[in-house]
């Protein structure tokens, strides 16, 4: 029985392991099929694919696209995408431009809030990868002004806080379309993480399905049993295939470790059943 993990991050976005380190660690943890799904970039895929060949692991080319739905930021994971598909590649380039502009505006806001040279320091932390809010948070933790990345998000980077800037992400339905056109399948990421009422969450899942979405992360991020139950109900109700992903970012992160995913409820059809 192959072990799947369809959601993970590397240093190409805001993960702490290089793609080859991530793949080596996944292989050691018993994962046989891994999707590298960095935020709005596929730049880590070639290195991950080379490492996967060495370790006898199947690398699934993927990306996690930042979108919006009714003003909420919603993530869509595209698996089995073609990273060279021109439509998708152009959309991701535009998204990375949006992220660069956002980083500059966050840095300005933080400088006004008493963090000098925030952009330079954060750029160093991001290395060759894109600058994300996680990197700003790491910088603030290192400066001693907060204890954890989570605390930084709460105090500085969320709406109403000094380092928050509103960002205009593409519409959810557009992202689903880019993924589908590139030959991939779209998965609604970590549905439990959006601050939505139960009704709005169902409307989101319905909209996602209608837009051409294929799957939903039933086991996602924390792997908490009540989340799995709620996500499984959405999968059943809207005829979405079930996916499982750790959303692994680093070994320090308190979420799921690689290769420790709880099983999907047995009545659901896993997205990989049709691969
Ligand atoms: Zn996400
Ligand atoms: Zn993610």
Structure description:
The protein has 275 residues and is an alpha/beta fold. The protein has one domain: Metal-dependent hydrolases (TIM Barrel, Alpha-Beta Barrel). It is 41% helix and 15% strand. The chain is built from nine helices and seven strands, in the order E-H-E-H-E-E-H-H-H-H-H-E-H-E-H-E. The chain has helices at residues 19-28, 45-55, 86-112, 118-126, 133-142, 149-157, 172-181, 198-210, 225-238, and strands at residues 4-5, 33-36, 58-69, 72-79, 185-188, 215-220, 241-245. Strands 1-2-3-4-5-6-7 form a seven-stranded mixed beta sheet. Strand 3 and strand 4 (72-79) form a beta hairpin.
Strand content: 5-15%
Question: Which topology does CATH recognise?
Answer: TIM Barrel
Number of helices: 9
Bound molecules: zinc ion
Helix/strand-derived class? alpha/beta
Spatial shape = globular
The unreliable regions are: none
Number of structural domains? 1
What is the typical, i.e. mean, pLDDT?
A: 94
Which CATH class? Alpha Beta
Let me know the CATH homologous superfamily.
Metal-dependent hydrolases
The string of secondary-structure elements, in order, is EHEHEEHHHHHEHEHE
- As a whole number of angstroms, the C-alpha radius of gyration is 18 Å
List key phrases describing it.
alpha/beta, seven-stranded mixed sheet, TIM Barrel, 9 helices, 275 residues, binds zinc ion
